[in-house]
Amino acid sequence: MDAQGLDKNRIDERLPGYRRIAHLDMDAFYASVELLRYPELCGLPVVIGGSGDWQPEIHKDGSWHFSRLRNYAGRGVVTTATYEARVFGVFSGMGLMKAAQLTPDAILLPADFRAYRHYSRLFKAAVAEITPQIEDHGIDEIYIDLCGLTDDTLTLARRIKQAVRESTGLSCSIGVTPNKLLSKICSDLEKPDGLTILDPEDIPNRIWPLPVRKISGIGPKATQKLAALGITTIADLARAETAFLQTHFGSSYGHWLHEAAHGIDDRPVVTESEPKSLSRETTFERDLHPRHDRHILSKILTGLCTDVANDLQRKGYASRTISIKLRYDDFRTISRNITLSSPTADAVAVRRAAEECLRRVSLKQKLRLLGVRASTLSAANTLRNSSMSHQGELPLAE
Amino acid sequence: MKLIQAERDTLLKPLQMVTGIVERRHTLPILSNVLIERKDDKISFVATDLEIQIATYAEDGDTVSEGYAVTVAAKKLQDILRALPDKTQVTLETDESRLHAKAGKSRFHLQTLPAEDFPKFPVGSEPQAKITVKQKELKHLLSMVQYAMAQQDIRYYLNGLLLLTEDNDIKVVATDGHRLAFALMKLEAPQEKREVILPRKVVLELARLLNDTDESVTVEILQNQVRFSFSSVVLVTKVVDGKFPDYNRVIPAGYQKHFDINRQLLLQTLQRASILSNEKFRGVRLILTTDNLRIVCNNSEQEEAEEELELHYDGEALDIGFNISYLLDVLNHLSGETVRCAFGDANSSALITIPGNDDFKYVVMPMRI
């Protein structure tokens, strides 16, 4: 299972500017956490998604009864799926009803973010024992700067994988290259339980044959546009003139595309990253009408605002910009934001701001999604300097 | 063309009545102007900010020309008139594009804009409710609550005052989310239930314009508008479109801990203590024990003010904090001799009332200090 790069352990730190950056990606993270809890599901197609209604029930004899995907009715989406389910073509973000058509017998489990966060903390802490040079990149991914460590790359990477397994019982895939861009591509090359070490001279062999979408930063739209220009692989992209790319994608993105295709990326590993925003959103069980379903929407909005406020408080931030996101039944998506006079982490204040944003959008069409985002974050302890922080609020709202 | 010749005050008084609502900087230049119009035997002055429209008349004056209408910068004309000596005879004349104000050897030439462009808004004609009360009564009623209105709150409906007619009552409510003031006045005739939110600006303007006399003011609730007619003034305002929160649910009932105290005494004591309250938080601690109220203020330089008042109190001991400005506000605007302060616990609101009078209630949330 180990990489072709076993013997390619020669990234040489003595060369100036040479870096060893690892990207660690947990394998089917949410699904794997669920399998830890329900080991009897190992080897079966399992799909995570939907609401708590699909919680497994325990029988008198102690065995579990799981919901099958075929029984699902609703509009939830796949949060993640085990590799056994992915074989059927199920992927994250797919509608659960659609997934049920592909693999009706798959087990359906509701997402349990609490558990995922717990395991996320565990594996990050385990890696931090080896080196603190870690950049958080979501719940199941980190970048690790291996520069300055004396051991050779393969030993280090194996040690990290071992530490993750010991602390969580879960497997991960690691890519080690001179930069974040390549490492992110490489961690995906040999999933699951992969280990890929890549030198710059391997780029033509291993990176260029890949489709352009493997580059983090080339999304579906850019992929489509590139395809229209006859560029489908990274090799095609590498051959394209920078000027040509800049004509079609603007000067900075065009330039970046060129560099990315050649595996150039100077971004440092940022160990102390501050979040830029915190948000919550939800797709409704059915499309809701702004007027007829006003009460349901109002409840959902309050819930989202409360969640955002709780996230802010838990993470110790206060926000000055509150935005809402609406997706209409025709998938048109819009957002509106409002800037407050002082930062807040209070659910009532967030709700009030969100409501104000809603006043500025057309509410004639049915909605399928509602989201609330808090940005322009500052550390919550600055709250104490703002004037009204200790002032009680009259319970005017419902 | 000569428009009018009159003593300074004949023009200045009505002008001052309408200029209060004129915005200094506005995207529509004509909104800084006052419309001066002669119809029949009257000279009217009209100003508007598109939300509020206010009109009044010159009492007398030697009007010498036929019907006319012109608009001119309201504040400039007002400043000119004000700067002229008392009792001066002033003449206003117009030509194509200017208004000329002449007084003695003074000459002022002001730009005009066409009266046709002045955005007077249509006023509804069918009142849904019509109330006539003494000006001083309405002035007093508004003054009891207007200080609690929110200012530039994004809950736009709080930047105003709720006016409610019901049975024999006219009720007013204002809140900024931290405190709420409620007052009611009895009417002679029963009213239909009507509820409107008056914009903050109108409330402040009415407080300025209403006289402290027995002269009457008529309040007419129209479709989306309210018209106030008093003295020689007709003020029409659009109402704030929105739902005012249910004030009843925040007015506590059945508070057991309470004391009565002389209003002036409490006001003066708090005013002294406030000298050393934190400039930003304005916090004050009230420590209530049997027959004793201790008032403590601290500022950021660790300076402290401490006051003690003897009173009759036999409830549980209580240590509660407030924004002192919210307490000073209510004590300043009440007129009675005694106030009653009632409390729940240190985290619940306090209720300030006038003993033996259910027509006024002030609810204020505490502040953690």
Architecture blueprint of SSEs:
The complex is a heterodimer of chains A (398) and B (369).
Chain A lengths: L20 E6 L2 H9 L8 E4 L7 E2 L5 E2 L1 E2 L9 E4 L1 H4 L9 H7 L4 E3 L3 H18 L3 E3 L4 E5 L7 H16 L3 E6 L2 H8 L7 E3 L5 H5 L12 H9 L5 H6 L2 H8 L1 H11 L15 E12 L5 H22 L1 E12 L4 E12 L2 H12 L8 E13 L19
Parallel strand pairs in A: 2-7, 10-11
Antiparallel strand pairs in A: 1-9, 1-10, 2-6, 3-4, 5-7, 8-9, 12-15, 13-14, 13-15
Helix pairs in contact in A: 4-5, 10-11, 12-13
Chain B lengths: L1 E6 H12 L13 E7 L2 E7 L3 E6 L4 E2 L4 E6 H10 L5 E6 L3 E6 L2 E8 L15 E6 H11 L14 E16 L3 E21 H10 L6 E7 L2 E6 L2 E6 L18 E6 H12 L8 E7 L2 E7 L5 E7 L7 E6 H10 L4 E6 L6 E5 L2 E8 L5
Antiparallel strand pairs in B: 1-5, 1-7, 2-3, 2-6, 3-4, 4-15, 6-9, 7-8, 8-9, 10-13, 11-12, 12-23, 13-14, 14-15, 16-21, 17-18, 17-20, 18-19, 21-22, 22-23
Helix pairs in contact in B: 1-2, 5-6
InterPro entries (chain B): DNA_clamp_sf, DNA_polIII_beta, DNA_polIII_beta_C, DNA_polIII_beta_cen, DNA_polIII_beta_N
Subunit structure (chain B): Forms a ring-shaped head-to-tail homodimer around DNA.
GO biological process, one term (chain B): DNA strand elongation involved in DNA replication
- Going by CATH, the architecture of the largest domain in chain B would be Roll
- Count of distinct strands of chain A: 15
In CATH terms, the superfamily of the largest domain in chain B is DNA Polymerase III, subunit A, domain 2
Kindly report the CATH topology of the largest domain in chain B: DNA Polymerase III, Chain A, domain 2
**CATH class identity of the largest domain in chain B:** Alpha Beta
How many helical elements of chain A? Answer: 13
How is the largest sheet of chain A built, in terms of strand order? 8-9-1-10-11
- Counted up, domains of chain B total 3
Low-confidence sequence ranges of chain A: 1-16, 383-389
The count of helical stretches of chain B stands at: 6
CATH superfamily of one domain in chain A: DNA polymerase, Y-family, little finger domain
Using the alpha-carbon principal axes, give the shape of chain A.
globular
Class derived from helix and strand content of chain A: alpha+beta
Radius of gyration of chain A: 24 Å
Give the helix/strand class of chain B: alpha+beta
GO molecular function (chain B): 3'-5' exonuclease activity; DNA binding; DNA-directed DNA polymerase activity
Main location (chain B): cytoplasm
Family (chain B): Belongs to the beta sliding clamp family.
InterPro entries (chain B): DNA_clamp_sf, DNA_polIII_beta, DNA_polIII_beta_C, DNA_polIII_beta_cen, DNA_polIII_beta_N
